[in-house]
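G., the chain you wanted modeled:
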Amino acid sequence: MSLSTVLRVLRRAHRVTERLPAPAAAHAEPGDLAGSLQLRHVDAGSCNGCELEIASAFGPIYDAERFGAKLVASPRHADGLLVTGPVTRNMAVPLVKTVEATPQPRIVIAVGDCARDCGAFRGGYGVVGSVADVVPVDVSIPGCPPDPSAIVDALRSITRR
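Predicted structure as tokens:
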């Protein structure tokens, strides 16, 4: 595929977003986080399917950054955490420490079915439980893996943009 063909395809691709629906009662309402949200991603033991969808949500098509959400490298710089996967024995303590390192007010978002209820990994010998079993969760995003538009919608409900 030549560069001109790639550029022609990219020019025809449009951003995939819709108007923000009315906020659902299931989402957390941390008023201090409206407008801008700096997030640290934590992989607690996932299969990396959710990570691909998070990368797509922050990529050029869905572009979550234009709604005020941004990924950061340190929990000390973050307003919240995006947690994927079931919490494994090796990640239970690091997850708790990462949550404690995130300044208040903070928000914890469980991304995907595995983070919400262990999904296909339920009952595994190395699995402690879901994210909510280890740390308090404010927002859950269903799906295995969740669609990037669902991730963007959840972030938009927090940033209110």
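Residues 2 and 94 are 45 Å apart (CA to CA).

Shout if anything looks off.
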